[in-house]
Amino acid sequence: MPHDVKIGVLALQGAFREHVDAFRRLGCEATEVRLPQDLEGVDAVVMPGGESTTVSKLLATSGLCEPLSDRLHAGLPAFGTCAGMILLANVVEGAIAGQRSFGAIDIAVTRNAFGSQVHSFEHDLEIEGIEGGPFRAIFIRAPSIAHAGSGVELIARVGGQGVAARTGKVLVTAFHPELGRDLRVHEHFLGIVSEA
Q: What is the C-alpha to C-alpha distance for residues 159 and 133, in angstroms, rounded to an integer?
């Protein structure tokens, strides 16, 4: 089913091509965002996984920091995966000096909560609001949600740690839904965009 929305995917580092492909398979227009002018006309933005401190530096050199912050705080729907969750968080525990976060969702995030690259894993998750059985989630140097504000709904956990949350127009996951073939999390975000 085609969706009449344009999704902008931050394309500075990480698995941005996989996000673009996922949204196109769902019938959306999806475009790569590298410069401020690439934000023009997008109905939502996706911040993919990668290395959060590197992405933070690239946001500064690309000139995207302030335009992106302005759009997010004006209510642009946003979806952050792994490093993207860190970028959208209000507080980042273990942040490197100068690391950017946009405060688009009232959560405190712990970087590398599940360990280093060698501790990457897959897990079958029950995600509130997503039907059709467990979602096979891929965790790579994943963060977790240490604290969520009162307006934030934690929608998935692993071992008691929050790994997905939603508030208003913002969805975040500690895992990488773009690396699998299951499109249900992307579809869930499109529902958020449609509601907006």
A: 19
